[in-house]
Amino acid sequence: MGRGKFKAKPTGQRHFSTPEEMLAGTSSRPRTFKREEAEYREEEESEECGQESGEESDGETEQKHKVTQGIIEINNPNRVKPKNLKARDADTGKTNELSRREREELEKQRAHERYIRLQEQGKTEQARKDLERLSLTRQQREEAARKREEEKAAREQKKVEARK
User: Fold this and answer.
1) Alpha carbon 88 to chain centroid distance?
2) Where is this region: Disordered (predicted)?
3) Which H helix or E strand runs over 113?
């Protein structure tokens, strides 16, 4: 039966040291935490001592960083500078360069407008076909209306003859 609030894992049970074991010093727990903490403190102390004696060398490294930083700022292609123009600095005669996609989109729109204009004038092949279909349907409707009128006139004539 395991001790502690956690369930036993299939890899093994947890074991907690009792206060008696801790006082006796027979605990099976590794004492690495105190060692790691002591090493960390030693590193911090050595860095503090190194900073006091190496203040002169820090100035040289700062200058190196400044030099490379300027190069990085100048040659960084990912950095986008804000393009804020004042009204007086704007060149009105300068044409705006369009990207390839924008140019293609404008050409596509212009071609579509030109096609619609030609279609309205009836100069495109599709417009000709549409006009032919329209004329055929008009003829068919006129013929159907004429037949209805003739049938109507024939019915009325039959009614008149039947009354006499």
Assistant:
1) 36
2) 1-164
3) helix 100-121
The domain segmentation of the chain, as residue ranges, is: 15-52, 102-163
Q: Is residue 31 classed as helix, strand or coil in its secondary structure?
A: coil
CA distance 161 to 164: 5
Non-local (6+) Cβ contacts of 98 within 8 A are 106
pLDDT band, residue 2 (cuts 50/70/90): low
- Residues with Cβ within 8 Å of 8's Cβ and at least 6 positions away in sequence, in order, are 2, 14
What is the C-alpha separation between 113 and 110, in angstroms, rounded? 5
Q: What is the pLDDT of residue 87?
A: 73
Task: Identify the residue whose tokens are 């956690």.
Answer: 6
115 residue type, one letter: Y
**What residue has token string 């004038």?**
121
Contact residues for 3 (Cβ-Cβ < 8 A; gap 6+): 14, 15, 16
Report phi then psi at 12, rounded to 5.
155, 165
* Residues recorded for the chain: 164
pLDDT per residue as tens digits for the range 84-102: 777 777 666 666 788 899 9
